[in-house]
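Holo prediction — 3,4-dihydroxyphenylalanine.
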Amino acid sequence: MPQDGTPNGDVSELDKLESDIISEIADASGLSDLDAVRVSALGKKGRVSALMQKLGGMSAEERKAFGQTVNALKGRVSDALEGRKAALEAAELESRLANERDDITLPVRPGPLAEGRIHPLSQVFDEVNEIFADMGFSVAEGPDIDTDDYCFTKLNIPAHHPARQDMDTFYLKEGADGNRMVLRPHTSPVQIRTMLNQKPPIRIIAPGRVYRCDSDQTHTPMFHQVEGLVIDEETHLGHLKWCLEEFCKAFFEVDEVKMRFRASHFPFTEPSMEVDIDAAAIGKPGQWLEILGSGMVHPNVIASCGLDPEKYQGFAFGMGLDRITMLKYGIPDLRDMFTGDLRWMKHYGFMPLDVPTLAGGMSS
Ligand code: DAH
């Protein structure tokens, strides 16, 4: 047996095999090329594995020496394969990083977010909340089905008062306790709920659904109002006027708005005023449009909630949200607001991510 341990003395054969494989590895231009080299060298039927078959015809000593030589060769080939693999992977990553660039300044592709719309009325709810929140009001809520007591009696509308008929209220069946529930015909009962549960100073708005048995072009049996209530020890009519004027300017997004406060009558306020705005605010000068009812809270209402009317006073208002939505966004027919017509929503609706803020814009 030759000194180097190769059974046939053909050192150069092994050297040649090794240098062939190493140069194939170096030449492999991609990961799949490299894998083909690996299989042809180290695979079960590969060239290095084939060498092992020679072991069969060797003496124990020869086998040991030859085995070590082939294993060493295998080790060097494996290292070369690993090294080349790492280099090819790094190069591939480099080229992907160089080529697969995303331009994040491009506009967002249309997707589900571009499909959905916020109903103009929901948009107006958000706008109204935003404006009053900025003036320090919080949002109060009451149930759609409320007691006759909160909807009328405590609001200074006693039984048999004509105002009860004016409201076209939906009454529910009388309960065992003799109490009658109603679908609230206005958001004013939330005034009562708030005064019963909160100590002055009170500053709330209460947006929500209201119901009246009425249906034509300009009336639907369900519609929306926002109630406002301010109660403390020094509130006067000037505050009411300022507050409503600030609201109208912010809501209609104009610097000036002409308003007319017309003497009126509501059982729960004294004095009472209906408020009109000059339609110049919506681009139609020369017309007065009624948008809300308001007044100084009647002392009877304050007393019915257990507060001392000598100490506390304040103002209240109630505004039709459907009406101001139609005025602001030029919606001609009230009934279309509630038909769920997708084409109408596409036309009048708002993008979900365009949340109204005073700083960022109400309706832009
Ligand atoms: N509740 C009245 C209605 O539905 C609107 C209203 C008028 C509310 C004057 C008020 C107010 O708070 O002060 O017609």
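READOUT: The CA atoms of residues 211 and 222 lie 4 Å apart.
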